[in-house]
Each structure stands twice: as C-alpha cells, then as structure tokens.
Design the sequence.
C-alpha cells in the first residue's frame, strides 16, 4: 500500500494574467519508509507540487488525484491535510510577530491530537520535550519564547522547520528546498534531523535544487521534474549524473 | 471580577454569551428627560442639596449643548426622550438580609456571569462567611456590581477597610464621605466638558467610589462589573477614584448587556485623581452587546474617561480591551500636571460585522519632564470601521516632555476600514515626540503556515491577532490577559470565511 499516491496531476498557479498551467500530468508514488528526491531546473514545478499537495491558496487543481494513506487530499482544507499527517517544511518560513514559538507549537500539537481523538499532551512534559529537541538542533532554547521566526536568521528558520518535523511526527514530510541558503554546518544539522525522522512507517519527499543535500540524506529514488512532469527516475546515482551533466541532456 | 467570569462569558461559541435577560421585577422610570427626572433620581438616592443642584446645573448646561458630530461614526439621531433614565431591581429597594431573601433571578445572573458563589452572597448584601473570605480564588479581587442604575453590592468591604481603603457605590459615598465626593466630583471632568459628560452629570445613577489613603498599596485588585438589563434604559454610571500621595491601586472594569434589537445608550464618566507619587492602573474589558451581524441593536458606548496626575511623579495607566458595543466613542486621557508624572494608554479595539469604533486618548502635558506612552492596536474585521484618534498636547510649561505613540492597525478581509487621526500640538521646543504607525493585513502566508501545522482557520486568525495585541495584553493584570485573548477569539468568529 502506498503512503502518497499522486496520479496524473494537472495544476495551475493563479496569476494576474489568469491561471498558468504548471503541473502537466505528474505521477508519483511514495511507500512507507521511502525517501524520494525531486530535482529539476527552476520553474519546472517543484514548489508547485509541494504547495498543491498541502493546499496553499493561489493554486488550482485542473485534474488528477492525490491521496495520503488512501484518503483524497485535494478536496480537503489545508489544516485537514495536516491533521491527516501531511507536513510541509517551508522554503520561506513566515514570521508571526507576537506569537511565541512555544505557543505556536502547543497549538499545533493540540490540534493534531484533537483531530486524532487523542488527549492533548501535558504542558510541562511537552515544554521539556521541545526544549530538548531545540538543543539537539543547535537552537538556543531562548528562541522558544520569541515570536515565530521573528528576527531569525535563515539557518534558524530552517532548523525550526526541522524541529517541528521531529516534534509533530507526520506521516509524510514534504521538504521544499530546505537546504537553500544553508551553510555546510547548518546543512548537516538539518540533514541529521531528517535522518532522525526517517522510519519504516513514514515517507519523505525532498525537493531540492542541489545534489549536495543528498550526500547527507540518501534518497531511495531520485526524480527529475521538467515542465510539470517527471521525465526521469532513478536511484541516487541519477543525482550525481545530474550534478555532472546538468539538466540539459534530459530535456 | 473573578478569574473565571470573562472566561465563562466567552467560551460558549459564536453567540454573544452574555446576551441573556434577567427577569427581575424592576422599578423603571418611564422614558423621558426633564428636570423632574433629575430631581427624582436625586431624591431616590436621598442626596444632599448640593448634589441635586449640581445635577440640575449640569442638566441646564446639557440642554444648551449639541451632540458631537466630529467622530468617524454614523448612526441615526438619538431621541433622548425615548430613554428611561432610572431602573433598579425592585428587591433591592428593601435590601435583602440573607441569601434566601435575594431574588433568585439575580443570583442566577451572577452565576451565568461566572461570579463565584461566596461573592454572589456578598454581592447580594448577605454578610459573607469569614471562611469564604479566606479562600484564595476570590479573595484577591473585590467586586462592585452595577446592575442597570444601581450598585447591587460591593464585596470585601471589611478587608479593604482594614487597609483604610474606601470602595463602595458612589451613591453610598455621597453619604459616608461627602467631603471627598464634593471636593473631587467633576474636578477632572467638569459638568459641561462634553455633551455626554453633561448628560451623565445630570442623571448618573450609580457607580464606584474608591479612595486609597496616603502611602497605602491597595491589598487587592478592585473591580466593577457593569450590566445593563432593562429594555430602553440608559446606563449612566459614574466612577471616581482618588489615590492619595504615594498610594497604589489597580482597578478592573467589565461590562456586558443582553441582546436587544434596539440600541441602548451607555454614557459613563470615569474620573481619576492621582496625587504625588501615587499610581493608578485602570483596566477595562468592554464587551457590551455589539448588535447582530447586520448591525441591528447593540450598545452606544459614549464614555468620558480622564485622569489627572495632580502631583509630582504620579502615574496613571489606562489599559483597555474593547470588543463590544455597536458604536464606541471613548478617549481615556491623562492630564499630566505634576512634574515628572507619567501617563500611559494601552488599547486593543476590535470591531467586527457592522461595529464602529472611534477611540484613542489625549495626553495633556503641563508639568516638567512629563512622559506619556500610547500603544494602540486596532483590529477591523467584517464590514466594520475602526478609528484611532489621539491628541498629544505639550503646553508651554512642559519642559522636556516626552511622548511615544505607536499606532498599529490590522485588517481582516477587504470590507472593513482602519483610520488614524493623530493630533500633535507642541508649544515647547524642548519636547520629544515620536509617532509610529503601521497598517497590516493578516496575510495568507501566515494563515497557511498555521493551517499547515493542523491549526484550524479561526484559531489561527485569533492566534495571529493575539500576537498582534501582545504589547497591550502584557499590561493587563494576569488573569484578565488570558480572558481578553479568549474574548478576541469569540469576537472574531466568522471574520474569515
């Protein structure tokens, strides 16, 4: 049984000049335990895939289906998709002034617990867990009291996303260019976080521009996205080949 | 007010939770206003002659005045002859002596409003059980409840009396402390200050009176809870707080009203006097009925609030969270007369549906080295209109005065309006005046970031709005801050489709 199943997905982005088709028949299957890397040139539709699957406003699904554990995603509200276990690590994490990280994380974990019909975690235990996680990702625990991403450096924002991933333990993680703008040390911390998250039950879709990240997070599959479609799939050697030759030989 | 009260008010979802009507037998004057009504009210309260005369003078002045039209609010003309100017629960006339004698409907009202039982007993005028006084839950807040036109009762009077603090209905203070009332009533807000203040001066029914003696730090939070119950009545309460030299007091005010199709008028006056080195912190959570989503009904909240820092190093701090009322017209102000005195105004005003708010403050600097801070957070949702209107005046005598104003507006949706009218009058070139303003929208990106972590849309909006208001909520007494946040949540329901 597949965890994520995307079938013949066509989607457009809403622009001032009307909808522009971006995804043009994308098909992808992720089974539990698998890590899939999606690579491709700028404008190929990598981020659109992440945004359409998670339900970001500003996109239109023209046709096709996407399911998580057999449940249709595309007609659900964004928060319902999250409650089903879909997680998007943002390329550009947004600032929410005045809302502390701790408060935000508690609201999130409580909502997810409620949706699963589970009891909300005890606040003291929860705070301890969050502080430990933050420490393990080289984040100063003082940052938990600050507003969500308020005044964070690029690296801190990305590590914050990974901390949320580890805390919320979703079924499927979509990582949208999480490696962009990271120096090598931060990249290692982020990669280590993702590797900690990997398990036989959950899946990862890694959207990235560079093969560099794949030295640290070894994917089971690599797909090349071009003009809204997957045009080539292979194992991790494909990423190395892309690094050497660029995308031109495929398109 | 107790810890749980506003909590209870807000937890019950999208309906205005405090909108119930209490079915108590009341003595209500027929609608209409003339000199005889003023005399009747004064007679009901067995007032001394000076006060009757004071009211009549105010009434005469009011008759010559015109309703102010400069505010950015719109409403049909008010017919002041359609309003009843006095209403009192009948059972209070004789004064119940035990809990059994208290009108059970009245007790149920307190219960619904979440006022703890031992306080209910105390409120109803029953001698409180000494054991109950010792319980920490209710012991840190003394409450005065004003139901329509009369003060029902005040709790913890004895405990306060030990500290020398006077906290009682103003109608009682007129008799028990006439010299204080006569000296300070109207000393900050003269009878003819403005149209509504003049009306209030003529017909004010009741309210709270506070006196903190020299050097005393009031042992508990003081709180007044205002409720309009009767149909077609106006509420005209009057609050007077005097903090003598070196004293401290923190005062909380909460308001609710039943849901009615007609508009009701609330025209209160609050006067604060802080002597040298005294500090007054006045916090309001205003949740008068705002009307329905089409703008039918709701309270017209036309209120005059002003404090004077009469002595050196005095400090007055206003914190308000305004979520209710169909129309709000309110500018809690500080006159900084004493040298080195400090005035603060922290405000969150939220409007939704068809609500209109024109609110802000006036900081009048007169003394040397006086300092004022204004932080205003306006949130507009639905089809509402939200205005900040503020005046900073630096008089020629106010050397080295400083003002900092920060004025932020947050818009939710595209049908609402936010307006800022800052007035600055500077007559002393040693002054430092800073003004910062911003207008922002709850962004789709912020909302999506919350939703992507499983947080439902309405909770996400309220979390973002709460974050926006954090600087003001920080100023509220602890328990009020949590409640204010929840109140925003309820007031925002339906704001995002």
Sequence:
């Amino acid at each position: 049984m597949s965890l994520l199943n995307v079938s013949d997905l066509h989607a457009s982005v809403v622009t001032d000049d009307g909808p522009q088709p971006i995804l043009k028949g994308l098909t992808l299957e992720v089974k539990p335990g698998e890590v899939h890397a999606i690579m491709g040139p700028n404008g190929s539709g990598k981020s659109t895939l992440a945004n359409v699957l998670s339900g970001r406003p500003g996109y239109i699904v023209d046709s096709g289906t996407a399911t998580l554990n057999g449940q249709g995603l595309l007609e659900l509200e964004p928060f319902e998709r999250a409650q089903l276990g879909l997680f998007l690590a943002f390329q550009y994490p947004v600032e929410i002034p005045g809302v502390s990280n701790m408060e935000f994380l508690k609201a999130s974990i409580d909502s997810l617990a409620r949706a699963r019909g589970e009891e909300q975690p005890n606040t003291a235990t929860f705070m301890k867990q969050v502080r430990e996680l933050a420490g393990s990702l080289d984040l100063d625990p003082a940052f938990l009291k600050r507003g969500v991403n308020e005044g964070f450096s690029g690296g801190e924002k990305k590590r914050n996303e990974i901390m949320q991933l580890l805390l919320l333990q979703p079924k499927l993680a979509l990582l949208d260019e999480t490696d962009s703008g990271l120096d090598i040390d931060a990249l290692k911390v982020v990669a280590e976080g993702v590797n900690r998250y990997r398990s036989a039950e959950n899946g990862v879709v890694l959207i990235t521009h560079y093969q560099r990240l794949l030295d640290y997070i070894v994917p089971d599959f690599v797909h090349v996205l071009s003009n809204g479609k997957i045009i080539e799939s292979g194992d991790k050697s494909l990423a190395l080949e892309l690094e050497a030759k660029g995308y031109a030989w495929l398109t | 007010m107790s810890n749980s009260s506003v909590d209870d008010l807000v937890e019950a979802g999208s309906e205005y939770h405090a909108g119930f009507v209490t079915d108590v037998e009341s003595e209500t004057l027929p609608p209409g206003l003339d000199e005889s009504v003023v005399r009747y009210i004064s007679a009901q309260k067995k007032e001394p002659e000076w006060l009757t005369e004071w009211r009549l003078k105010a009434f005469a002045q009011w008759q010559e005045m015109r309703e102010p039209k400069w505010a950015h609010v719109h409403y049909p003309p008010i017919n002041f002859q359609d309003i009843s100017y006095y209403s009192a629960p009948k059972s209070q006339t004789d004064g119940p002596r035990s809990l059994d004698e208290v009108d059970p409907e009245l007790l149920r009202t307190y219960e619904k409003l979440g006022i703890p039982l031992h306080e209910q007993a105390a409120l109803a005028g029953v001698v409180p059980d000494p054991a109950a006084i010792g319980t920490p839950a209710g012991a840190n807040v003394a409450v005065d409840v004003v139901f329509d036109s009369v003060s029902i009762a005040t709790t913890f009077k004895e405990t306060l009396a030990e500290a020398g603090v006077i906290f009682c209905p103003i109608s009682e203070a007129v008799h028990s402390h006439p010299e204080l009332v006569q000296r300070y009533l109207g000393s900050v807000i003269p009878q003819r200050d403005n149209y509504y203040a003049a009306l209030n001066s003529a017909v004010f029914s009741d309210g709270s009176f506070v006196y903190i003696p020299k050097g005393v730090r009031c042992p508990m939070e003081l709180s007044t809870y205002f409720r309009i119950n009767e149909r077609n009545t106006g509420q005209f309460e009057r609050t007077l707080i005097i903090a003598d030299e070196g004293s401290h007091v923190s005062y909380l005010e909460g308001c609710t009203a039943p849901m009615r199709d007609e508009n009701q008028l609330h025209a209160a006056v609050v006067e604060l006097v802080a002597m040298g080195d005294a500090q007054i912190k006045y916090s309001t959570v205003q949740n008068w009925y705002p009307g329905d989503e089409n703008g039918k009904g709701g309270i017209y909240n036309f209120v005059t609030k002003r404090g004077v820092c009469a002595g050196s190093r005095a400090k007055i701090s206003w914190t308000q969270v305004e979520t209710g009322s169909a129309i709000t017209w309110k500018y809690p102000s500080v006159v900084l007369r004493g040298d080195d005195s400090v005035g603060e105004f922290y405000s969150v005003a939220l409007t939704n549906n068809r609500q209109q708010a024109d609110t802000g403050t006036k900081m009048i600097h007169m003394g040397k080295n006086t300092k004022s801070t204004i932080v205003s957070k306006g949130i507009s949702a639905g089809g509402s209109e939200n205005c900040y209107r503020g005046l900073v005046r630096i008089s020629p005598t106010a050397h080295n005065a400083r003002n900092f104003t920060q004025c932020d507006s947050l818009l939710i949706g595209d049908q609402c309006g936010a307006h800022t009218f800052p007035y600055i009058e500077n007559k002393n070139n040693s002054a430092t005046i800073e003004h910062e303003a911003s207008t922002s929208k709850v962004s789709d990106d912020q909302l999506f970031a919350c939703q992507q972590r499983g947080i439902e849309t309405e909770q996400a909006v309220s979390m973002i709005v709460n974050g926006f208001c954090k600087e003001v909520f920080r100023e509220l007494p602890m328990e009020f801050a949590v409640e204010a946040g929840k109140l925003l949540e309820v007031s925002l329901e339906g704001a995002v489709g």
User: Anything to note?
Assistant: Chain A touches chain B at residues 54-58, 77-79, 81-83, 87-88, 90, 93-99, 103-104, 107-108, 111-112, 115, 147-148, 164, 168 (CB under 8 Å). Chain A has one domain: 4-245. The mean pLDDT of chain A is 92.
